[in-house]
Recover the amino acids of this structure.
């Protein structure tokens, strides 16, 4: 029965098709309808005839979109990503089910965060262009020893923990913050849970690995930046909305922030994953960020490794198969707290 099921894939690129087609041919035979379009109210009709919609980070699953999908008899939203801040879970509750890929390669994202830190520190991204131009001077490229410096990790889930371990490997001191501390991890990795204030005050490098929620929206703003060390490096591979970009620009201008590595940007859905090289960039905030020589922006590529793509395709199709077979959905997101494994069991509260 499930073989004839049609699945509408939004915001797809050739690399998505390559990995999904390969897994589909290896034990599934769903009917994929790939669309390059992002999912938004205008593109919902493309899902007509599909029980399942497969969406990515920049698809907008607002209340309107969910209602319109429901009117087309869509039953399942299968996110092929970990973050779910783009889905109105409350609207989806009792209308359709939402699954995600909670873990595909936390290493991919953590390693990318560290790549940003290393590049910004030693300016390898700039050295690449300088030497290709026959300029072998090293002025302006001086960095610092990572050993002995302090890194602050906000969010010690799957990705944050790996980032912390890698940075410990550089002999850095690692301070971590998470509302749900894992003291066993702290003990074995030799990192220290502190409150946010202390993390801000003591860290030379701050890396964001928490989800975007009501609590974490603009967690990096004028106030938190004001508490940080002068010249602090900030790296964001979490979600763009964690940082108030205008406050970051002010802090870069004043020298408060010494460097910023951004794999995500609050208004990224307009640009990231697309080629705008022959067009005028009309986002003044993004354009300004791109002018700083101590800002390194990558366009949401933290997840983008071969291993991660394979895992994303495999878990997404497993989620879909479980749904079609009427099995429990282990990667379903709790609409109340947004966790796939609801923390209510551990903490007595969902939010
Ligand atoms: P996870 O769910 O394993 O860990 C998130 C951690 O953040 C949890 O320990 C949670 O308790 C903590 N947290 C929740 N509220 C917090 C708060 N207010 N302050 C500090 N910590 C808080 O998630 P995972 O897999 O580690 O991913 C983290 C984030 O990375 C995702 O939410 C997603 O936004 C982002 N991500 C980015 C990718 C990229 O390509 N750049 C790819 C995958 C994920």
């Amino acid at each position: 029965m499930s073989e004839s099921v049609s699945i509408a894939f939004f915001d797809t690129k050739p690399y998505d098709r390559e990995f999904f087609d390969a897994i589909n041919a290896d034990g599934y035979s769903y009917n994929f309808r790939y669309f390059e379009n992002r999912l938004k109210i205008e593109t919902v009709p493309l899902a007509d005839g599909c029980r399942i919609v497969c969406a990515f980070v920049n698809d907008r699953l607002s209340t309107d979109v969910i209602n319109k999908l429901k009117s087309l008899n869509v039953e399942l939203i299968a996110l092929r990503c970990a973050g779910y801040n783009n889905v109105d879970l409350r609207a989806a509750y009792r209308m359709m089910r939402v699954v995600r890929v909670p873990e595909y390669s936390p290493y991919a994202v953590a390693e990318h965060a560290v790549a940003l830190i290393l590049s910004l520190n030693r300016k390898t991204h700039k050295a690449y262009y300088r030497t290709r131009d026959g300029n072998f001077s090293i002025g302006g490229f001086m960095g610092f020893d990572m050993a002995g410096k302090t890194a602050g990790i906000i969010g010690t889930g799957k990705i944050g923990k790996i980032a912390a371990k890698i940075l410990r490997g550089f002999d850095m001191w690692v301070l971590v913050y998470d509302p749900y501390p894992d003291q066993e991890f702290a003990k074995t990795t030799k990192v220290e849970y502190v409150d946010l204030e202390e993390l801000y005050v003591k860290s030379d490098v701050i890396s964001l690995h928490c989800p975007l929620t009501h609590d974490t929206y603009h967690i990096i703003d004028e106030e938190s930046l004001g508490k940080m060390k002068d010249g602090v490096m900030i790296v964001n591979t979490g979600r763009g909305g964690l940082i108030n970009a205008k406050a970051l620009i002010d802090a870069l201008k004043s020298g408060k922030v010494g460097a910023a590595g951004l794999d995500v940007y609050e208004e990224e859905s307009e640009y990231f994953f697309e080629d705008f090289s022959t067009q005028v960039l009309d986002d003044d905030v993004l354009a300004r960020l791109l002018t700083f020589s101590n800002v390194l922006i990558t366009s949401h590529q933290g997840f983008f490794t071969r291993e991660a793509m394979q895992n994303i395709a495999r878990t997404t199709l497993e989620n879909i198969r479980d749904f079609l077979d009427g099995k429990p959905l282990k990667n379903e997101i709790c609409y109340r707290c947004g966790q796939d494994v609801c923390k209510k069991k551990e903490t007595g509260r969902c939010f």
